[in-house]
Design goal:
402 residues; alpha/beta; Rossmann fold; 7-stranded mixed β-sheet; 3-stranded antiparallel β-sheet; 15% strand; disordered N terminus; CoA-transferase activity; CoA-Trfase_fam_III; CoA-Trfase_III_dom3_sf; transferase
Length: 402
């Protein structure tokens, strides 16, 4: 990748060894890819468990492909002494190592932070766990659903009957990846400022990430003694129209007056029940019932056009296909279509702040897809490589499913 004066590739030249699995760690490493870093994905013979989760085929899934785009992959059996020596060689040539093993596992396979520092002084190690590296729950396995339950996220997202429900995506994993990517970027910046940098071991947990992300609803709950809070503003919600749903939000009284005028009922603004946001909160059922009946009389686009003209916040309730076809999304180039030999053509969101077009990167690799190529680059000779492959210390992809 050649850098020009107009390109923003702040981590070009940074070498990352991504030994993490699933979503959180790989997504953090993917953020570095999108800022120009060179990332090698290291997997055991059984592969990253993300390769068998979600919709997909032959070890390429909806969970794994987007967070491993632009990486090259090597398969190493770290249970063998020869495999650990291979990883030592790669550590010596890396600036960052990222892992998501349970606490203590990295030390067991001879790759603890002390060892890494000796192999590569100044190295940055990022460790992501479910509940942290110490404490009464440190050894517990953690998953997205478990952490949504444990951190109050499911309770915050309760349904109309007050029943907790998980957010319908791997939100905690993605959030943890974002925090980890930010922390790694800061550590890389420190590393680059000084040739004598001592290195950093950054420890992040899904527990900590999910807790930090919910600072606002947590404070709301604290201030209201745990009582379920009312909507911040009313009316605010989704409404059915003649041919689809729209989201409508009135943040200020002026917006509500504009909404009332568009709907042909300017007198609502003078109604004591709806005079200000506090009154509308007390009478939310009444105002929402009135809105529901009127919105059903016209198509979705009619209401969106009329409300946008008056400054009322509104928008369509889109499917993913609607989003892909949205004119603004297309104008900004937010979802370019990429091609993959297994998954075919699909939209790959551009990372905000990155100038890298995912279409210019190599596709998400197969398990051990570049094993031989990477061993050559690391300095192993042909005889060594053949022995490593023959003894299944390292595995080169055969294109078969895992």
């Amino acid at each position: 990748m050649n850098k020009t004066s107009n390109e923003f590739l702040p981590f070009q030249g940074v070498r990352v060894l991504d030994m993490s699995q699933g979503l959180a760690g790989p997504y953090a490493a993917e953020m570095l890819v999108m800022m120009g870093a060179s990332v090698i994905k290291v997997e055991p013979p059984q592969g990253d468990w993300g390769r068998v989760m979600g919709v997909g085929l032959n070890g390429q899934t909806s969970l794994s492909a987007p967070v491993n785009w632009g990486k090259r992959a090597i398969c190493v059996d770290a249970r063998q002494e020869a495999g650990r020596k291979v990883l030592h060689r790669f550590v010596e040539q890396s600036d960052v190592v990222l892992e998501s093993f349970r606490p203590g596992i990295l030390d067991k396979i001879g790759l603890g932070f002390d060892v890494l520092q000796k192999l590569r002084p100044g190295i940055v190690l990022g460790s992501i766990s479910g509940f942290g590296s110490a404490g009464p729950n440190a050894s517990r396995p953690g998953s997205d659903s478990i952490l949504q339950a444990a951190t109050g996220m499911a309770s915050m997202n309760q349904d109309a009957d007050g029943k907790p429900r998980r957010v319908g995506m791997l939100a905690v994993d993605m959030i943890a990846g974002l925090y980890a990517g930010f922390a790694l970027a800061a550590a890389i910046s420190e590393q680059r400022q000084s040739a004598s940098s001592p290195g950093r071991h950054l420890e992040l947990s899904l527990l900590g990430a999910a807790s930090a992300f919910q600072a606002t609803p947590m404070l709301e709950s604290f201030l209201q003694n745990g009582v379920r809070n009312r909507p911040v503003t009313v009316p605010s919600g989704n409404f059915a129209t003649l041919d689809g749903e729209i989201a409508v939000v009135c943040l200020r009284n002026e917006m509500f007056r504009s909404l009332a005028e568009v709907l042909g009922h300017p007198e609502w603004a003078e109604d004591p029940r709806f005079a200000d946001n506090a009154a509308r909160q007390d009478n939310a059922e009444a105002i929402n019932s009135l809105l529901e009946k009127i919105f059903l009389t016209q198509p979705r686009d009619h209401w969106i056009e009329k409300l946008n003209e008056t400054g009322v916040l509104c928008g369509p309730m889109n499917s993913y296909q609607d989003l892909i076809e949205d004119p603004q999304v297309q104008y900004l180039g937010l979802l370019p279509m990429v091609n993959h030999e297994v998954l075919g053509s699909f939209p790959m969101p551009r990372m905000p702040g990155s100038q890298i077009d995912p279409r210019t990167l190599c596709a998400a690799p197969a398990l051990g897809g570049q094993t031989r190529e990477l061993l050559i680059e690391a300095g192993f000779d042909a005889a060594e490589i053949n022995e490593l492959l023959r003894n299944n210390v390292c595995i080169q992809s055969s294109g078969q499913s895992i």
